[in-house]
Design a protein that fits this description.
Blueprint (H helix, E strand, L loop, with lengths): L6 E6 L15 E5 L13 H6 L1 E11 L7 E10 L5 E6 L4 E9 L3 E3 L1 E6 L2 E6 L4 H16 L3 E9 L2 E8 L9 E5 L2 E2 L3 E9 L22 E3 L8 E2 L8 E10 L11 E8 L3
Length: about 270
């Protein structure tokens, strides 16, 4: 079973970065976030506090367990220092969407197609009922491979159609590939697989910003102060992780505060 010790939190800024001030996105660092003061944000001058200040940091969360998955993970801020900075968490969340376009110059009579998804074979038998194929493809991915997807289909004819596959959970998936094409036709069959949307944040790298004052593009920030308004992430399989952005907001005419702090929480379930 996954325990707290199986979850690691590291700086961003590349593998060799060990400075919190340079934790501004990019690839994960090998440096764990420490428990001491200034482990993520730097101190501000009195002038900066009085004028108001907004800055950003990025860190990564990983499931380091060798075999166990953390299901339905969520993040939130459980506490902030009274009269301190306001803290918001941000993720760039998208569902992974891929399409399979099948086109034949002549009608297809029978046969099958085999696809590979992260090393798993998915066999789809041909049917002139494209709606049946759509359901069979969805069932094959969900049941045989174990992912939660929804599949839709648009068809011009029963030998010219496109499947759209949406992976639930905010996670990047490798593009499916064609393993074999055993469709029977007098003509020529073309199978084209494309990525419409890269999923994330799980299994992605964060954008690297030029300095701490620049907001990362595409990241939605929100105040999340309890488990009731926590931010949904995704299930984390062994070795998977994701970048988290933190926005620190200090209003104008604020007062300096020693030991300003906040507590970040990751929650999840050891089983479905």
């Amino acid at each position: 079973m996954i325990t707290r010790s199986d979850i690691s939190m590291v700086l961003s800024g590349g593998s060799t970065n060990s400075f919190a001030s340079d934790s501004l996105g990019g690839e994960p660092s090998n440096t764990l976030i420490g428990s001491g003061i200034n482990n993520l944000f730097s101190d501000l001058s009195s002038a900066e506090v009085e004028a108001g200040y907004i800055d950003y940091r990025c860190f990564y969360v990983f499931n380091d367990h060798e075999t166990e998955t953390l299901y339905d993970s969520k993040i939130y801020i459980s506490s902030q220092a009274p009269n301190g900075a306001s803290i918001q968490l941000g993720l760039k969340r998208d569902n992974d969407i891929q399409t399979i376009h099948v086109y034949s110059t002549d009608p297809i009579s029978s046969g099958s197609m085999t696809f590979l998804l992260e090393g798993n074979e998915i066999v789809l038998n041909y049917s002139p009922n494209v709606g049946l194929m759509q359901q069979n493809l969805e069932d094959a991915i969900n049941s045989n491979v174990g992912y939660d997807v929804s599949v839709s289909v648009s068809a011009i004819t029963d030998y010219n159609f496109t499947f759209s596959i949406t992976f639930s959970g905010y996670k990047y998936f490798e593009l499916m590939t064609e393993s074999s094409n055993d469709l029977v036709t007098a003509g020529t069959v073309t199978i084209d697989i494309q990525k419409n949307t890269d999923g994330g944040p799980v299994n992605t790298f964060a954008e690297e910003i030029d300095n701490e004052l620049i907001a990362p593009s595409g990241v939605v920030f929100q105040s999340t102060t309890s488990i009731d308004n926590s931010i949904e992430v995704a299930s984390l399989r062994p070795g998977e992780g994701f970048p988290v952005w933190v926005k620190r907001i200090i209003g104008s005419n604020a007062q300096s505060l020693q030991n300003d702090n906040f507590t970040f929480v990751l929650i999840g379930s050891p089983s479905l």
